[in-house]
Design goal:
Blueprint: H1 2-7, H2 22-34, E1 40-41, H3 46-50, H4 52-61, E2 66-68, H5 71-75, E3 80-84, H6 86-101, E4 117-122, H7 123-128, H8 135-140, E5 143-145
Parallel strand pairs: 1-2, 2-3, 4-5
Antiparallel strand pairs: 3-4
Helix pairs in contact: 2-4
Length: 146
């Protein structure tokens, strides 16, 4: 992501956290605004899932478009999401567990890499922030939330 951002002349400022709470994410979002951030890219951590609602509420109240890695974020108010298909991932996990329970050695189970990635555009969230989504991006989206 950093390389692509540099090519586009976009600066990325990581906001790191040691402690996890809604208040911490509020402070991080305030810090992002103070540093001139124009959008938020959420990492793929369990803490982000836990505080999804409050993070998105905070970003929206600060008028920051938000990009996340999972469909549920776009469905909850993020501007868009691009990431693996979690249904596919969990389905494969269930198959692997079934093989182990049937007696297969974990070392014999093939390594799984996701092959399906989903782009979900929340056109409604974008419009509320005064953003227009290009027709090309809408055409490539797996789902558009109106």
């Amino acid at each position: 992501m950093r390389t692509a951002a540099e090519r586009l002349g976009i600066s990325l400022v990581p906001l790191l956290f040691d402690d996890v709470s809604a208040a911490v994410f509020e402070r991080l979002l305030d810090s992002a605004v103070e540093s001139g951030a124009q959008a938020v890219v959420l990492s793929e951590t369990s803490e982000i899932f836990t505080y999804q609602e409050s993070i998105l509420r905070g970003a929206i109240s600060r008028r920051l478009p938000t990009l996340a890695a999972y469909r549920s974020f776009a469905q909850s108010g993020a501007t868009c999401s691009l990431g693996v298909n979690l249904d596919e991932m969990f389905g494969e996990l269930a198959r692997q567990i079934a093989h182990i329970l049937d007696g297969a050695s974990p070392g014999e189970i093939r390594f799984f890499l996701p092959t399906t990635f989903e782009l979900v555009v929340n056109r409604k969230a974008a419009a509320e922030l005064g953003l227009q989504v290009s027709p090309a991006l809408l055409a490539r989206a797996d789902e558009v939330i109106e």
